[in-house]
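Protein modeling request. Please complete all fields; requests missing the sequence field cannot be processed.
Requester role: graduate student
Desired output: 3D structure, token encoding
Chains: 1
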Amino acid sequence: MRTISFDLEKSDTSGKHKFMSRLRNELIKYDYKEVSPEEESDIHLYTRKYSKNAKYNIYRIDGICVNESLNDDKKDCKSLNLNISDKIYCSSGVVFQNIFCKKAVDKIIKETYSNYTCIVNGADPEEFNVDPLKRDNPYFMALCKWRPHKRLKEIVEGFLRSDIKDTDLLIYGDADYIIDHPRVVYMGWKKQNELSAAINGSIATVHLAWLDWCPNSVVESVVAGKQVIYTNSGGTKYIVKDRGHIINDSSWKYEFHDLYNPPSIDMDEVANAYIKAKNEPIKNFKSDDLYISTVALQYYNFFEKIIESNNKDEKQRQDKTVIRLLDRKWKTKENKIKKDILDIKDKIKNLKGHSDEKNKLLTDLKKLKRNIINKKLEYNIQRNRLRTKE
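Delivered output (390 residues):
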């Protein structure tokens, strides 16, 4: 029996949490025992936090940062992508959610890796073996974590432009676009069993996002046997394929841009997709490629490939990983201290004459300068010790 740990707790609070919960439940069938990340394990599958206790860390990349407008003290694209680059470097294997995700990493992150695979997300068809939601009118539905690039406004406007009689649009989640209209119904957040019932009862689900990686709501819709109205940008097309109605979107050049200001789409095309989905529905298609059992088998085979290869260079790679993480930690610490030094110098420069405040700042400046020397010495000692072990 092999052991496996995960960095995400069991939860249905987000798409990635739901998927990882489904996956861990399925992997148990392959004689994998789940342990805590604090315990030793054969495999650690993670999206955020690397484990020092695992023989093999497998990094599942949950998208990268391409939003150039994301730039504040807590988050910015450069630091977020550097973190992703480190994780790729530190891992024994990398799982991309589809070929779109891999291309984006190759062109923007540009980190080298050897062992990788592309595996889309999956869902359990049994989750949708429930009675459909019953309403007076037939309905379309849209569900996700709403942000501007998810294009809720276009979903609503396209529906209203279609002018389909006696049909509603149900919107699940915390909507970022609200309109007062009798046929547009805001449902808020619901538990998975309620969402499953709503998907089951829908004409189709609608996902017009710009550059989505591998949306779980779309996976769930296809597994439930429901057609999807979707845009052909990002990774959504690798999920839906011919099981929905496609809306042409702009092509992305794998560059940083204002993600929350997506390009416009043809609203007549959106309206016509609603009409076609209602009058010419796509039914009775196969979706077993997205079953969690199919997806889990692909993960299992990838894990076994990594373990069985038992590369002799693995120990050396792990040692280099520790050094790289140490380097990155020091660089972050050094940059912070340097910034603090510059801030104090600016404050001193703006003070006139001598004052208690200025004397205090000068004392703080001396402490910071001594601190950066001492911290660098500690860093060099640690690094030399690690290099000696190589």
